[in-house]
Amino acid sequence: MMKWKIAGMMVAAVMLTGCFQDTVNTVENSEKNMQAQSVNVQNVSTDSFLKNRLKIVRVDKVTLPDGLLKVQVSAVNVRTGFFSEMWSWFTNDNPYSITYRFTWLDQNGMEVNTAASTWIPLTVVPGDTIRLSAVSPNSRCKDFVLSLRENN
Question: How many structural domains compose the chain?
C-alpha cells in the first residue's frame, strides 16, 4: 500500500512540473556566417531581480551604408527549472514583462535627444532568447546605451 502512495505522489509531482513549465526550445544554425561587429560591454545592474532573469549573451553593431548605426542585443531569460517556474506561478510573473530603450550618443559621448528614445514593452518567456534592436536616428550617433527595467 505504501508503494502505491509513493508512486501516486511521484506521478502527481511529475504532472505538476509539466503544468508549470512554459518555456521555449530553439534550434539554430551552428555554423555562424554573420559579419556583425561584436561589442565589448559593461553591465551596470541596480536591479538584482532583473539581473538574475535576463542574461546578455551578445551585443552586435554595424554601420549601415547611409552612416546610421544598427545595434542588436541578444539576451536570454535564464529563469527556467521547476523552482523558478513554481515561484513565477505563485507571483503571477510568467511570462516576464520588461521595458527597454536605447539612448544614442554622439562621438563625444553626449546624448543625442530623439523621439526614438522611448520605453518599449516586451514579454519574455522563460528560456526564450530575445533580440533588442534599433537603428540610430541620424549619422551623428556613434554609440549607445541600452536600459532595461521590469514592466510593473
Answer: 1
Q: What is the CATH number of the domain that holds 141?
A: 2.60.40.3230
Q: Identify residue 141 by its one-letter amino acid code.
A: C
Range of the domain at 102: 37-150
pLDDT for 18: 47
Rounded to whole angstroms, how far apart are CA atoms 50 and 70?
25
| Mean pLDDT calculated for residue range 103-112 | 91
% of the chain residues with pLDDT over 90: 23
What is the enclosing helix (H) or strand (E) of 135?
strand 129-135
* Of 120, 118, 68, 130, nearest in space to 99 by CA: 120
